[in-house]
């Protein structure tokens, strides 16, 4: 539907722009010479371990209220920001993207060996990489939609300050079924592997304007080391 695939597999790498706009850059510049060397070594290891995959599903929108969007099948996603940006959408594109288990397992291995710095840096590198994977996937999806004459909203996701209900994570998970790419979900709504994210994008012909990315709508945008919001709304 909409010229999109339901499965994506791709290589992901942090570009200079990705690094310069996140806490990883600050980390590299403020550590000692030894630590800086370790940071770069661990970043390369993270690239080798990452296995970026994603599954997607477009679900028609049936109706909207002030803070809910109801989907075909009866499920509802509860975010007033999602309603504001995607309330006029024809469908919602639900996405789950993961880097796989290898980074998580390596972090656990480093911790067992008492290599706390290695574990810490690899965990941060994995977080930066899954964020970059999400952005890379969104650009691919936008290009495919535009080729079919459709527009999309910026991606939003449960668990952020603008969408606090992790119960919605379960709805997204059940509709997309990312078990096929090795992603499971806990009762809390947290997904495993840890370096996994869910995203929701509205699809339509005419959509309202928005900020460049979801960080602008987050209450901790000025404190989060991964924030891509540089100026106030």
Structure keywords:
NADH Oxidase; alpha+beta; globular; two-stranded antiparallel sheet; 9 strands; 233 residues
Task: Kindly describe this structure.
One of its GO terms (molecular function) is methionine synthase activity. This is Vitamin B12 dependent methionine synthase, activation domain. InterPro entries: VitB12-dep_Met_synth_activ_sf. With 233 residues, this protein is α+β, with helices and mostly antiparallel strands. The protein has one domain: NADH Oxidase. Helices cover 39% and strands 19% of the residues. It has seven helices and nine strands. A hairpin with a 4-residue loop joins strand 2 (52-64) and strand 3. It is globular.
By helix and strand content, what is the structural category? Answer: alpha+beta
Order of helices and strands: EHHHEEEHEHHEHEEE
The portion of residues assigned to helices is 25-40%
Radius of gyration over all CA atoms, rounded: 18 Å
Question: Biggest β-sheet, characterized?
Answer: 7 strands, antiparallel
Number of helices: 7
Global shape: globular
Q: Which fold name corresponds to the CATH topology?
A: NADH Oxidase
Task: Write down how many β-strands occur, each being a DSSP E stretch of 2 or more residues.
Answer: 9
Number of domains: 1
Kindly report the average pLDDT value: 90
Amino- and carboxy-terminal Cα gap = 34 Å
Note the beta-strand portion.
15-25%
The CATH architecture would be 3-Layer(aba) Sandwich
| Low-confidence blocks of residues | none
- Just give the CATH class: Alpha Beta
């Amino acid at each position: 539907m909409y010229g999109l695939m339901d499965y994506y597999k791709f290589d992901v790498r942090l570009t200079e722009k990705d690094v310069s706009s996140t806490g990883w850059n600050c980390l590299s510049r403020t550590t000692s010479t030894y630590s800086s060397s370790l940071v770069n070594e661990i970043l390369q290891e993270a690239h080798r371990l990452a296995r970026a995959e994603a599954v997607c599903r477009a679900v028609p929108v049936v109706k909207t209220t002030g803070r809910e969007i109801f989907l075909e099948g009866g499920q509802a996603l509860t975010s007033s920001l999602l309603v504001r940006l995607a309330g006029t959408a024809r469908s919602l594109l639900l996405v789950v993207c993961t880097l796989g288990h290898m980074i998580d397992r390596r972090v656990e291995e480093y911790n067992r060996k008492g290599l706390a710095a290695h574990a810490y840096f690899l965990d941060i590198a994995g977080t930066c990489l899954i964020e970059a994977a999400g952005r890379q996937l969104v650009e691919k999806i936008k290009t495919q939609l535009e080729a079919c004459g459709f527009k999309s909203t910026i991606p939003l996701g449960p668990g952020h300050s603008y969408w606090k209900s992790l119960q919605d994570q379960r709805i997204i998970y059940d509709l997309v079924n990312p078990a096929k790419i090795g992603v499971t979900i806990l009762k809390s709504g947290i997904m495993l592997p840890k370096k996994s994210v869910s995203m929701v994008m509205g699809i339509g012909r005419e959509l309202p304007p928005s900020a460049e990315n979801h960080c602008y709508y987050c209450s901790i945008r000025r404190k989060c080391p991964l924030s891509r919001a540089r100026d106030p709304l």
